[in-house]
Amino acid sequence: MKTALPLFYFKPTICWVDDDRLFLDAASLSFGEHYHCNTFNSPSEAIKYFNEYRAPLSVISFKREFSESDLFGSANHHPVDIDMTAIAELANNAACHDEIAVLIVDYHMAEMNGVDLCERLKNFNGKKILLTGEATHEKAIEAFNKGIIDKFIRKGHNIAETLQQYVKELVYQYFCERTAALVEHLEASRRSVLSDKSFIEFFNKWCSENNIEEYYLLNKQGAFLVKDKAGAISHFVLHSENDNREFAKLNDELTGEAAQLTADVASGKLIPFFGIHKEYWEVEETNWSPYFYPTQTFSGREQYFWAVV
């Protein structure tokens, strides 16, 4: 699987299974700031829950049929069309935070050991972390090599920082895998910025520096609706040099202020953003000015121009 930025990312649920109630309470306090937490005090409780669990994302379709009325060159349409509206609507769908991305299981439990439990839950598509003791370390390695678990760590007094890092990595990996097929469809005609390693590094760093906890793709150029830790919403807008040229070509017969705005897009000075899922032709050219923003730049496969709106 190639590396690509997930099309959406948000605070999911992580589940803990441990027959030590004090440990579960401490885990919920430690991780509750960043994730929703479900805890189970016995393997049987967890098995019963997961037998009835249905991932919220599994009932949402992110594709739609491509119709003749769709324009291939527009911001939101592709040969196999991705439903960008469905992605953006996740930002207002509280139920999506019930999506379980990571399961953390203690090995030593009276009712059933952690490896056996993970095997029983093999149909659960989330990531699994096993908490082990000194005596069970080799069994954890074996379970990892068999693909039963994704990571393991020795349980002790100083595991919090490592466990936080493991969970962060696996949550990100979960969303990457969850949206990988959508990225493949989106890149059916040409590679997108989402698989540009330079952009992935840049965007993840920008999110970290700006306390961004959620993001949702808005169009094929790479614009995202983003939410910070306080819940404030903004829009990360992006164009490549090719996007700028395409915009200028589509609007090369304009005159007056609209022609100058188009020229400023072509030169990389300005970037257009007409709103979520709103196309440029839906706004009168004489009213374009408020929808153009000064850019910043960075380099990847090509030169990129971006703004936060």
Q: What does this protein look like?
A:
It is built from nine helices and 15 strands. It has helices spanning 21-31, 43-52, 84-89, 114-120, 137-145, 160-186, 197-209, 241-250, 256-266; strands spanning 8-9, 13-17, 36-40, 63-64, 81-82, 100-106, 127-132, 151-154, 212-217, 224-228, 233-240, 270-272, 292-294, 296-299, 303-308. α8 runs antiparallel to α9. The chain has two domains: 9-190, Response regulator (Rossmann fold), CATH 3.40.50; 196-309, no CATH class. α5 (137-145) links the parallel β7 (127-132) and β8 (151-154). It has 309 residues and is α/β, with parallel strands linked by helices.
Short description:
With about 300 residues, the protein is of the alpha/beta class.
How would you describe this structure in keywords?
2 domains, 309 residues, 6-stranded antiparallel β-sheet, 5-stranded parallel β-sheet, alpha/beta, Rossmann fold
User: How much is the radius of gyration in Å?
Assistant: 23 Å
The SS-based structural class is alpha/beta
Report the average pLDDT across residues.
Answer: 91
Principal-axes geometry comes out as elongated
Termini gap: 33 Å
User: What percentage of amino acids are in beta strands?
Assistant: 15-25%
Tally of domains: 2
Task: Give the strand tally.
Answer: 15
Question: Helix amount, in percent?
Answer: 25-40%
Helices and strands, with pairings:
Blueprint (H helix, E strand, L loop, with lengths): L7 E2 L3 E5 L3 H11 L4 E5 L2 H10 L10 E2 L16 E2 L1 H6 L10 E7 L7 H7 L6 E6 L4 H9 L5 E4 L5 H27 L10 H13 L2 E6 L6 E5 L4 E8 H10 L5 H11 L3 E3 L19 E3 L1 E4 L3 E6 L1
Helix pairs in contact: 8-9
